[in-house]
């Protein structure tokens, strides 16, 4: 298929965006057809328009193809073949490629697609980013010549002063308006990460810098981008949330309350459109159906939590058994202190190890303790003695 090439997807099935790229429209149940009858049609996938590309993603989310906007013809030829029973709109996308919108919202989806493409072509974000890179390279080369000419303490101070001025200008221009803030979010995140890597402060200042460095979910999905299609919006949101939370949930021991996950996600969305708690909960509830390797569980306390099972291979249960043998017995508090994880996750791991037969519990007035399970060995030796 001319101009379309395979592109990268994340583990959650979302588009791996390019530098400075974000999504402007997402349309479901779109078919790409070529004039070559031998070619396999790309049927009922997700069509995404970004600031750089047009991307078609397979319904299984295992494969995607993309064409750069620079390859688009100067004008899109639109043919409306709708009838009372079915809305069908065809757009001639370059030589030999057609985009078929065959959903009930065919005409409306066509308008969204053409508007998004025309807006992206007018903005030419890819050109702006290329010019910015060239400017940065030239500035870096100029700074190198300047440093070589101005060695010593005076030269270093001048260079630091100039860098601080550039960072201040970037931040000021980024906060000038909401649109510019969205477009320059990546630059602001880079600056925040640079601040964190170079600072030696501690306490609250360090915590603030860590928070700043974690800013920015790339190309956050919005209701506007999906045209108000709730099903598509929540599925895309589910994939994006799982991709964002995976590493962070594992960092805190594999368990994070749904409330904490919601606050963390909202803080990191580089968008003015927040996600309602209802949409967030529905998106998280789809983790299992979409097989994203992350799930939502209800703890014994009734609290909902985002959970990643990292103990399916029994290695975690064996590690807890070894810890119990070393300490004679262990509690959830011991695991929490040793593994640096939430107490709820520690207790869940102990119960999983118990269910797998590695630990045995003892409930006393002192609380719940877990011991290495010696019953299996005792039963085995008893059977051998009888034999």
UniProtKB/TrEMBL annotation:
Keyword list, A-Z: Cytoplasm, Endosome, Protein transport, Transport
Subcellular localization: Cytoplasm; Endosome
Record field: transmembrane: none
A Pfam family: EAP30
Stored InterPro entries: PH-like_dom_sf (IPR011993), Snf8/Vps36 (IPR040608), Vps36 (IPR037855), WH-like_DNA-bd_sf (IPR036388), WH_DNA-bd_sf (IPR036390)
MF (Gene Ontology): phosphatidylinositol-3-phosphate binding; ubiquitin binding
An annotated GO cellular component: late endosome membrane
Family: Belongs to the VPS36 family.
Subunit field text: Component of the endosomal sorting complex required for transport II (ESCRT-II).
Function: Component of the ESCRT-II complex (endosomal sorting complex required for transport II), which is required for multivesicular body (MVB) formation and sorting of endosomal cargo proteins into MVBs.
Protein known as: Vacuolar protein-sorting-associated protein 36
Source organism of this protein record: Gracilariopsis chorda
């Amino acid at each position: 298929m001319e101009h379309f090439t395979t592109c990268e997807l994340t583990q959650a099935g979302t588009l791996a965006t390019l530098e400075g790229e974000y999504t402007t429209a997402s349309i479901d149940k779109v078919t790409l057809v070529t004039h070559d009858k031998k070619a396999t049609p790309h049927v009922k996938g997700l069509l995404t328009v970004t600031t750089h590309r047009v991307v078609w993603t397979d319904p299984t989310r295992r494969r995607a193809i993309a064409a750069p906007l620079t390859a688009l013809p100067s004008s899109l030829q639109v043919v409306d073949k709708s009838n009372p029973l079915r809305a069908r709109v065809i757009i001639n996308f370059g030589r030999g490629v057609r985009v078929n919108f065959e959903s009930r919202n065919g005409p409306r989806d066509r308008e969204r697609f053409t508007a998004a493409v025309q807006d992206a072509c007018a903005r030419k974000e890819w050109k702006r980013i290329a010019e910015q890179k060239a400017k940065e390279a030239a500035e870096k080369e100029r700074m190198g010549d300047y440093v070589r000419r101005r060695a010593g303490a005076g030269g270093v101070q001048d260079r630091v002063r100039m860098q601080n001025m550039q960072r201040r200008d970037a931040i000021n221009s980024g906060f000038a308006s909401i649109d510019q803030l969205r477009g320059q979010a990546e630059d602001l995140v880079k600056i925040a990460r640079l601040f964190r890597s170079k600072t030696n402060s501690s306490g609250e200042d360090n915590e603030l810098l860590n928070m700043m460095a974690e800013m920015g979910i790339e190309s956050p999905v919005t209701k506007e981008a999906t045209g108000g299609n709730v099903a598509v919006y929540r599925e895309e949101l589910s994939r994006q949330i799982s991709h964002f939370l995976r590493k962070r949930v594992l960092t805190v021991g594999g368990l994070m309350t749904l409330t904490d996950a919601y606050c963390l996600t909202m803080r990191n969305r580089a968008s003015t459109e927040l996600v309602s708690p209802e949409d967030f909960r529905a998106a998280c509830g789809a983790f299992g159906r979409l097989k994203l390797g992350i799930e939502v569980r209800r703890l014994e306390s009734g609290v909902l939590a985002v959970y990643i099972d990292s103990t399916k291979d029994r290695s975690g249960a064996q590690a807890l058994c070894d810890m119990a043998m070393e300490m004679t017995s262990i509690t959830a508090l011991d695991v929490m202190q040793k593994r640096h994880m939430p107490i709820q996750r520690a207790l869940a791991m102990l119960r999983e190890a118990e269910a797998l037969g590695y630990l045995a519990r003892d409930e006393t007035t002192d609380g719940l303790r877990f011991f290495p399970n010696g019953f299996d060995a005792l039963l085995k030796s008893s059977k051998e003695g009888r034999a």
